[in-house]
Amino acid sequence: MNSEETKFFEAFTALMIVLWIAIIAIFLSNLIGFLTSIEYEAPITLEKYPFFIWTYRGLDTLTQVFLLLATILGVAALLREDEGPGVEEEPVVEGGEG
Question: What is the mean pLDDT of residues 79-93?
């Protein structure tokens, strides 16, 4: 690629970026107006029912399982052997064959 092609490519890229930013700005302004016009009120909020998470057994159990799995993975990561320089792997020798 010679210098003239490089300059053309850089100019074309800059023009496309400016055009892309202009298009995104136009759509974003319309999108923000649309999203702010939507009014939604959740049927169950934590302000109205603060004990919802802990009284709903399915969600409570799922949370406990996630925390237990995260704890197990954290402990396993702390206790694993480092694999780096100086670590020697030992071959597995199966019994029965001479």
Answer: 74
31, 65: one domain: no
Q: What is the pTM of this model?
A: 0.34
Domain of residue 8: give its range. Answer: 1-40
How far apart CA 26 and CA 62 sit, in angstroms, is 43
Residues 8, 29, single domain; the answer is yes
48 lies in the same domain as 35 = no
Which amino acid is present at 44?
Answer: I
User: First-to-last CA distance in the chain?
Assistant: 66
Residues 96, 98: Cα–Cα separation, whole Å? 6
